[in-house]
Specification:
The chain has 1213 residues and is α/β, with parallel strands linked by helices. It folds into six domains: 15-131 and 363-462, 3-Layer(aba) Sandwich (Rossmann fold); 137-192 and 329-360, Enzyme I, Chain A, domain 2 (Orthogonal Bundle); 212-322, Up-down Bundle (Four Helix Bundle (Hemerythrin (Met), subunit A)); 511-600 and 770-938, P-loop containing nucleotide triphosphate hydrolases (Rossmann fold, 3-Layer(aba) Sandwich); 604-755, PCRA, domain 4 (Orthogonal Bundle), CATH 1.10.486.10; 993-1021 and 1039-1212, Lambda Exonuclease, Chain A, CATH 3.90.320. Residues 1000-1032 and 1034-1041 have low confidence and may be disordered. Helices cover 49% and strands 12% of the residues. Helix 34 packs across helix 36. Keywords: ATP-binding, DNA damage, DNA repair, DNA-binding, Exonuclease, Helicase, Hydrolase, Isomerase, Nuclease, Nucleotide-binding. It catalyses: Couples ATP hydrolysis with the unwinding of duplex DNA by translocating in the 3'-5' direction; ATP + H2O = ADP + phosphate + H(+).
């Protein structure tokens, strides 16, 4: 072991941090709890390596995300620059060299490192060097689906008995989509292993056995589960017996049940599987005795939950051992060929998929890892890449080690040295929440256990948290000291994992201001309320709490200024388990005038406006689809109501709905007109879809229907509008792949929706000062002064555990076998995987809870909802009889649990919860703990009252619930409002925000030739543009030089010309070349600029003035001004309306007491025109510029010039 330098007394590091920075000569695993400064330690370790003259290029630093890699480089750069400033002159060259090497240093994600290896050593595996990376999931998914469909179709055609047996086992309806899902998921699991083929080949072996008692799955998983459940049931009954002293009947019942459990334990220990099943089947629980005396009844009521838990444990054991051993063995034999066929099909897919990628010369992200591992494993006399990288990298540093998988671990082992070990791994297994990416936290756990025994390496624990107040940490410890252990959470939350407060800089504050709070919405309603769902109730509760905090001028500690200050919006974050309620949050927070920024809103494909557009695309592709067609007809695009849709169907009941629409009778004039108009549009779009990209089709739909404008007026309108615009961008990205056309695009979307895959929503608008909303996953690595953890009573999602097949990285594939009579039998691998995955799922949920709680710096709120306060306390009170520190595993392993159920059971045992329980007859283990907290239960009536109060405070009318009689009394008012006509219709046909390009239409500016005057009597001009001549096809078209574009290029050159010296032809030519190289304008446009006219201008009096006073010249100056609409438009009907006009002035000279304005024009004079006519045309425009300058500068514009470059004339206004 190396000698660690002595830590200076003034060092800002703990002893463990100091050790993590300097210890070397063996593998090192740093278990860094939340807020312990792991990134700071990682950066400092790198800096210390560089101080010892190990170059930055000799270090491999692997991060989990590209963002983390960028942050790491930035931190290292800052540290290097500081050291450069402090270094003696003779040593500065070393630090300069490290700064120069930093941009190309290997600080990246593992995928990026793999890409670097493949680009360097592609020839080792005979790869084509010009490969493209499949970065778009769209293309990858479509390619996989296409190949899988071909394989399944070929299998059907082969009429293979093995395949038909495979199909019959999984298909219960007409869709065989489940086959594709199973095989693709199996492919993904296989590819997460270093040797996918070996992993696949091992799958059927789990179904080959003749003796269940010696079967590894039974001895290692099923038997262990039974042992645990029998032991826990025995313990519960023993405690119940001890409490029942004096109740002879009850004691006798419990003793009988204890005897039966002990018999089960005995035969289980002897491995007598037949006897285990028989004893488990025959076990009985007698009727619970009744007692009438108050004292006896009280004791009996306390004992009853313990006995019920024992019964539940035995019942769960029966589900783990559901059939006699001979039936379980027969199920294995029957399932064997089905699993074997699945393996065959996946291998075939794997080969076809690889071949297809090779033909297209593309690689996906998984290929990067497998190819890198293959390259590193090649060893010949000429090539040893493994040795090269081991020699190159003096140390391999891995961030977020808890989130890697076994394939990635294999790559790291190839580039790291073993003697002495040089692998430095840092992470926190309590924050491993990426199982859906096949992260394997057991790698961290296994390594931690070995290193704890000083085997193969050493471990260091960073327990101090420098982020959060001690009150937040104590509350977090209170919860996890009772919840997280090896059984649930996969790590013991004991001394080594317990959080220790290191943030001593926080000032003392009133305990009630900083203690964590539990907010519970009671969703049972006894009176009418504005709140209709539990989500709405929770969101209103949180919005009201935020309003309360702001109204109280709640103080938080600013770590940047080291002072207390008032709470602001940006200090607050709402963490959600899913995105489903994000749009509801936007609407409700608007009611409270609370700005909100959502990082990833509700599922994109589930948004109403996107579903409408996808339905429209479906019927453009194929109108003979009833559901999408009715969806479009009912939507605002067509606007039919339910009665009209019913009429269409009743008129023609024996045909498709599309045919019914086409054949709708003419006598119903109004509806027929609507349908005819829609069919005409649909025909146009169907033609357009055949010859134009999807993005162009969408743009045309938006222009014709104004649907984006419509959704802007709905709640969350800006988000909905952004969603529609993003659909165009996503269509463009789709057609940049190897797939084209509307049908594949629609099919791709359908596949995405079927697989519950989605895209995150675009961010419509982000206010700098706003409350943040994000998922718990998105919050990892972040911290906020005030945290609300939302929707904590959402049940843990265990639906995947009921599928007909289950998979596990280590246990393989488990299936249910369906016999000829469609009876389902669960195989032993399925049972083992189901129990394993249940524990893993609940463990990950517990770790998500840990991540959520440790985001809070100063104040933490947990939010959930129960039917009533009594129901919540009843659920939580199950923990009151517990006698151990850790809650019973069965309480934590319930598949119906929620995060709040877990939290409630830990809080109910604490003295701070006693005021909320009216009658506690008995406690098991009382938790005496430094933590403190407050609970608040709020019903809908209280929320309604508080809502009205806040609305009144904000001077806006509150919502009211009207009775039928009250509604009738105001119906005339509503009718008058609905019939109201705006008195200024012309004002609705223009915007209040006008650019100069709009106003120029009044002056016929030749530089904006395609704009037209606004005619109030003409319908929407967008719908009636006329084309005088058809455009030539691109392959025949010549490059016409447009005057407007040449004018823009001329203006740009004039803007860039230096005024400190007389311009020359050579200087202008250099600027032309720069414009061409930077591709700001096409070459044929730039070369068309008249340089001689520019040189002429600078020889004029005005041009010489610009050169004489360069510091007084202002070019391309933006401006805005208010102007009465009646001054812009003739006969404008609203005398009070104003327009905000904005634009850009070519230039002006500003002197002490006046301004000189000038404007360039590049239009040519015709024979019929003279200078005075041109001046008259632009007079109004120049006056607008002059007015804007005079308002802005508060100086008169004494001279105004119009510079006609082509005519070489300077006109004075």
């Amino acid at each position: 072991m190396n000698k660690i330098p002595e830590k200076p007394k003034d060092a800002m590091y703990t002893d463990e941090q100091w050790q993590a920075i300097f210890e070397t000569d063996h593998h090192l695993l740093v278990s860094a709890s939340a807020g312990s400064g792991k990134t700071r330690i990682l950066v400092q370790r790198v800096i210390e390596k560089i101080k010892q003259h190990q170059s930055i290029e000799q270090l491999l630093i692997v991060t989990f995300t590209e963002a983390a890699a960028r942050e790491m480089k930035q931190r290292i750069e800052i540290a290097l620059r500081e050291l450069l400033q402090e270094a003696p002159i003779g040593e500065r060259q070393w630090w300069i060299q490290q700064l120069q090497l930093l941009p190309t240093a290997t600080i990246s994600t593992l995928h990026a490192f793999c890409l670097r290896v493949i680009r360097k050593y592609y020839y080792v595996l005979d790869l084509e060097p010009g490969f493209r990376l499949l970065t778009d999931d769209t293309e990858r998914l479509l390619l996989q689906e296409e190949i899988m469909e071909d394989i399944i179709e070929e299998a059907y055609e082969s009429k293979s008995e093995a395949f038909y047996t495979f199909v019959a086992n999984f298909i219960s309806d007409r869709s065989d989509q489940v086959l594709s899902e199973l095989l693709l998921q199996l492919y993904d699991f296989a590819r997460a292993n270093p040797d996918p083929i070996a992993w696949l080949d091992a799958l059927p072996l789990a179904y080959q056995t003749t003796d269940m008692a010696t079967m590894p799955l039974y001895t290692s998983f099923i038997k262990v589960q039974l042992e645990e459940k029998f032991a826990e049931a025995h313990a519960q009954l023993q405690v119940a017996k001890d409490y029942s002293v004096g109740l002879d009947k009850l004691v006798a019942v419990i003793e009988e049940e204890l005897t039966q459990i002990e018999q089960l334990q005995q035969v289980l220990a002897l491995n007598e599987v037949d006897q285990v099943y028989q004893a488990l089947t025959n076990i009985t629980f007698s009727r619970f005795p009744a007692y009438r005396k108050a004292e006896e009844k009280e004791v009996a009521q306390t004992v009853k939950p313990m006995r019920e838990l024992a019964k539940q444990l035995v019942q769960e054991a029966s589900t783990i051992f559901p059939y006699p051993p001979n039936v379980l063995l027969d199920t294995l034999n029957q399932a064997y060929p089905i699993v074997e066929e699945a393996v065959r099909l996946v291998k075939l897919f794997m080969a076809r998929y690889q071949k297809s990628k090779a033909q297209k010369n593309v690689l996906d992200f998984n290929d990067l890892e497998h190819l890198t591992l293959a390259i590193l494993q090649v060893k010949t006399p000429e090539i040893d890449v493994h040795a090269y990288y081991q020699e190159l990298f003096h140390e391999v540093l891995v961030d977020e080690y808890q989130d890697i998988n076994r394939l990635q671990q294999a790559i790291l082992e190839q580039v790291a040295k073993q003697e002495p070990g040089n692998l430095f791994m840092v992470g926190d297994v309590k924050q491993s929440i990426y199982a859906f990416r096949l992260a394997d936290p057991t790698l961290f756990i296994e390594k931690y256990a070995r290193y704890k025994q000083h085997q193969e390496g050493e471990k260091i624990d960073l327990k101090e948290n420098f982020r959060s107040r001690k009150e937040v940490l104590a509350f977090t410890n209170l919860i996890f000291e009772q919840l997280m252990d090896q059984q649930v959470g996969q790590i013991d939350y004991q001394d080594e994992a317990r959080l220790i407060s290191g943030a001593t800089y926080y000032p003392e504050q009133d305990a009630t201001l900083v203690q964590p709070e539990v907010l519970i919405y009671e969703k049972q309603q006894t009176t009418p309320s504005m709140i209709t769902t539990k989500s709405e109730g929770e969101i209103h509760l949180v919005a009201q709490k935020i309003r309360e905090l702001l109204a109280q001028n709640r103080q938080i500690f600013d770590r940047k200024t080291n002072q207390l200050r008032a709470l602001s919006y940006q200090d607050i974050v709402l963490l959600t388990p899913t995105r489903s309620a994000h749009l509801t949050m936007i609407d409700i927070f608007q009611e409270y005038d609370l700005p909100i920024a959502i990082k990833d809103a509700q599922n994109y494909f589930q948004a109403t406006e996107i579903q409408v557009m996808l339905s429209l695309l479906q019927i453009i592709d194929n109108p003979i689809q009833d559901i999408p067609l009715v969806s479009v007809l009912r939507s605002p695009i067509v606007g039919l109501n339910e009665s009209e849709l019913a009429d269409i169907r009743l008129e023609n009941q024996d045909m498709t709905f599309y045919q019914a629409v086409v054949n709708y009778p003419d006598e119903h004039v109004s509806l027929k007109q609507k349908l005819t108009s829609f069919l005409t549009q649909l025909t146009t779009w169907r033609k357009l879809a055949k010859r134009q990209p999807i993005a162009t089709l969408l743009q045309d739909i938006y222009a014709q229907t104004a649907y984006p404008d419509y959704v802007l007026g709905l709640p969350s309108g800006e988000q909905r509008y952004a969603n529609l615009m993003a659909l165009i961008q996503r269509a463009q990205r789709y057609e940049e792949t190897s797939f084209r056309g509307l049908y594949p695009f629609v099919r791709f979307i359908e596949k995405m929706r079927e697989k519950n895959k989605d895209l995150s929503q675009p961010v419509a608008k982000v206010q700098e000062e706003s409350i943040q909303v994000m998922t718990i996953h998105a919050s990892k690595g972040l911290e906020f002064p005030v945290v609300f953890v939302m929707d904590m009573t959402k049940e843990v999602n265990t639906q995947d555990l009921t599928k007909p097949y289950l998979m596990d990285e280590q246990l393989g594939l488990g299936i249910k076998w369906i016999d000829s009579e469609r009876m389902s039998f669960t195989s032993l691998p399925y049972l083992a995987i189901q129990q394993t995955k249940l524990v893993k799922t609940l463990s990950e949920e517990m770790r998500k809870l840990y991540v959520a709680l440790t985001r809070a710096e100063q104040k933490l709120f947990l939010v959930g909802s129960y039917k009533t306060k009594e129901e919540a306390i009843k659920k939580w009170s199950k923990a009151l009889t517990q006698t151990q520190q850790f809650l019973d595993p069965q309480l934590r392993l319930s598949s119906k649990s929620s995060l709040m159920d877990w939290v409630g059971m830990t809080l109910v045992r604490h003295p701070s919860f006693e005021p909320y329980i009216d009658d506690i007859t008995l406690r098991g283990k009382k938790i005496v703990h430094e933590a403190d907290f407050h609970c608040q239960f709020v019903d809908s009536q209280s929320l309604d009252t508080t809502y009205a109060y806040w609305k009144e405070q904000m001077h806006t009318p509150s919502k009211q619930i009207l009775t039928t009689s009250e509604f009738g009394a105001v119906s005339d008012v509503l009718l008058n409002r609905l019939a109201y006509q705006y008195p200024y219709p012309k004002a609705t046909k223009t915007t209040s925000y006008q650019s100069v390009s709009e106003i120029k239409r009044l002056y016929n500016d030749p530089d904006e030739q395609d704009l037209q005057l606004l005619d109030w009597n003409e319908p929407n001009p967008q719908s009636y543009r006329q084309v005088e001549q058809l455009a030539k096809p691109k392959f025949l078209a010549t490059q016409d030089i447009q005057a407007t574009t040449v004018g823009q290029a001329t203006h740009y050159l004039l803007q860039q010309i230096s005024l400190t010296r007389q311009p020359t032809k050579e200087a202008l030519l250099r600027q032309q070349r720069d414009l061409i190289q930077t591709q700001q304008f096409p070459e044929h446009i730039v070369t068309a600029v008249d340089l001689d006219s520019i040189l002429w201008f600078f020889d004029t009096t005005l041009g010489k003035d610009l050169l004489a006073y360069p510091q007084r010249v202002f070019r391309e100056q933006p401006f805005s001004m208010l102007k009465a609409a009646s001054e812009i438009y003739q006969d404008f009907d609203d005398p009070t309306s104003e327009l905000l006009i904005h634009g850009i002035i070519d230039g002006y000279l500003e002197f002490e007491d006046h301004v000189v304005l000038y404007d360039f024009k590049t239009d040519h004079l015709t024979k019929q025109q003279d200078a005075s006519q041109i001046l008259a045309r632009y007079r109004g425009q120049l006056r607008l510029y002059a007015q804007a300058l005079e308002q802005a500068l508060e100086k008169p514009v004494k001279e105004t010039y119009l510079v006609l470059l082509s005519a070489r004339n300077v006109l004075s206004l």
